[in-house]
Design a protein that fits this description.
The structure is a homodimer. Chain A is of the alpha/beta class. Chain A is built from 15 helices and 16 strands. Chains A and B meet through β4, β10, α7, β13 and α13 of A and β6, α7, α9, α10 and β9 of B.
Amino acid sequence: MAAAAASPSRELTQNPLQKTWEPYDNGLPAGHSAQRGVCMTNCPTLIVMVGLPARGKTYISKKLTRYLNWIGVPTKEFNVGQYRRDLVKKYKSFEFFLPDNEEGLKIRKQCALAALNDVRQYLSEENGHVAVFDATNTTRERRETIYKFGEENGYKTFFVESVCVDPEVIAANIVQVKLGSPDYVDCSNDEATEDFMKRIECYKNSYETLDETLDKDLSYIKIMDVGRSYLVNRVMDHIQSRIVYYLMNIHVTPRSIYLCRHGESELNLKGRIGGDPGLSVRGKEFAKSLAQFINEQNIKDLKVWTSQMKRTIQTAEALGVPYEQWKVLNEIDAGVCEEMTYEEIQENYPLEFALRDQDKYRYRYPKGESYEDLVQRLEPVIMELERQENVLVICHQAVMRCLLAYFLDKPAEQLPYLKCPLHTVLKLTPVAYGCKVESIFLNVEAVNTHRDKPENVGVDRSREEALRTVPNHL
Amino acid sequence: MQVCMTNCPTLIVMVGLPARGKTYISKKLTRYLNWIGVPTKEFNVGQYRRDLVKKYKSFEFFLPDNEEGLKIRKQCALAALNDVRQYLSEENGHVAVFDATNTTRERRETIYKFGEENGYKTFFVESVCVDPEVIAANIVQVKLGSPDYVDCSNDEATEDFMKRIECYKNSYETLDETLDKDLSYIKIMDVGRSYLVNRVMDHIQSRIVYYLMNIHVTPRSIYLCRHGESELNLKGRIGGDPGLSVRGKEFAKSLAQFINEQNIKDLKVWTSQMKRTIQTAEALGVPYEQWKVLNEIDAGVCEEMTYEEIQENYPLEFALRDQDKYRYRYPKGESYEDLVQRLEPVIMELERQENVLVICHQAVMRCLLAYFLDKPAEQLPYLKCPLHTVLKLTPVAYGCKVESIFLNVEAVNTHRDKPENVGVDRSREEALRTVPNHL
């Protein structure tokens, strides 16, 4: 009899929700197996913003946080200015920031420490992966303090500095995000601008920019002139590499992104999901209306993207302009449920149907995809949308929900239930720290394809309970 | 239609002293761009010089006051640029990599003007390195074996090459943040410790920068293999999500033993999300990461069929696939071309990592192998990736050493060669002639 093998292979069980194969010991999931896409960071990352006021630090912090959360990396930003506003109820003037204002310095240090404490709690106790510490951090001394804090707690620290001397850019920033700040709620625009310029001056004398020699052992990216050039030093791991790539692709040129679905399809009419059908009569009407709408908008250098499915391409064809087909914009693959009605899914796969309602984001169709998978495959689309200016994306319901969730910072739980009706264009325009949304219904009727989460998501629910929220169809 | 990455051709211009990795970067970047579907070609001016001046004598050829040398070198640069123009403007090339020292501002201006005249976007890639150990290592890796030094001893070659570098140093004008602020470029410092990136103009330049920032030169090996033989392999069926056969499980144990014996430092193990690769990894008893993008090619309506059944049910599809196996997409499935697109993040992460074992599938392994061995699209779908065989890839000089290790557990052959007759009117027998044996 041969000696026992070192360690016999564990049995595999398929997770019924995500359809992933996991090893188990005595009926319990075992370790040793990680899903790619989420496990990008082995130790938490502390991103530290650096720069004078009005250099885009908060803009970058919020955008980066939004992006990382969307791709599945739990991230949170900590704005020290906000801590200050919570502590010092009423902002008086720039004098608070004078370098010899002892009271001010004391309060500001207290706020920074309070924020760092919350960072520690988020990364070490609440399963956060990345924390973005948003403050000026303009002195080497302050950055050393933060770096030591990171080391003590086992975090990797990555600095993001924004350097800008162009007075026009700074003036525009002040208009965009400072005039409306709670600090200046009782001031006129001129008063606010004057005070803020003096605030910036308070920092200038002690500002120590990241230096190629003095800071050569730190990991950082220095963004110069709103992205004209970058200095990147010592990228340590995958997540830092992704952050650098993202930061190098975003821009602030004003533009709009138009999202819509294909026109109503033949399968939409029948309440069937997926497939590769053509447009219905009304869908073709919509395509013409879309062409008219786009013309009227008079958009400069509009790029048009579609999926590789017939219905989006048919829709784009009506525009009479060049368009690019992206396979990754194809609708979510419903696997064995392709071309079924919800009634048929309930009939044939009642368990699957219930599991999907329990966790619509993570649920993967048998031999198909999940919303979570969709986000992974759409990431290059988001990256290219960031690079581009005016774009119209003609896509599909689940795909549009994923893209919309990115722009509107919607969490995973809400994403699969975002309302993206047929024949409705969403015009997204970046403004201040977020995105303005205009919803334009193009006046061609279409079926409703939105199915709300039912009340009863238990696997033992009745057929009626399962189908209660199914929209009407032929 | 894939992402339209280049509306006008791109001219990449290498910059740097000798032995700074320019040719290494040129070749690697060219390989990557071609693999992701961007037609790219490199033009090494040193090669033009070797073709013109049959026998290299000494570093004196490169002395700054050697009129004859300067004349020949300028001639070679112009000949190379002429070939660049032909490739980009007449032969549908998208990217040309102009590999030469290009160390003076004057030379770079000439090239930039050439680009402008022809409607190319110019992007400079400079490699700056002062670490004498790195330079010495480069000389050993790629210069001692150069045709220039075929008749010299290592010491003679090194001494001559060091003097060659000196010839360039006095006139070297590095890319400057102020003087060159209107150019698009990346300056790579100290083999990737830091980068200066200026005015990235479009998508392809952004991708190039991302790639260059992720590659490294730390020695390591990449191990590629397929899952152990599966139950469907035995039956000659493609795709599906089957478990391992008895022999497949044997292989998994042999793989564990092989990996142990190799004594690999900090080995990462990656699998797909299909049962057969995960079962294989389980035998190793080490942590592994599951990547959905490593899943086998989706055969759509042909999933779990035998080739005989595909011929029976979809004879037209079967013939079309043989006509262009790289671009052919299964109905409701994927093509090899699609596979390459979805595997790109795997390649990027493989470049970042060091020692990695990738347990994947036949079509997936062919795509990854084609990247490392620079195989073109026509050959990729026919690369031999048999079951139970590990390929150990080790970067060396400008390429990749491959060692093939069969782990001594028998398995079916799953390789189907391209048949002679790929016409849609061929007979069943002609179509099935190259199908390997199965149960």
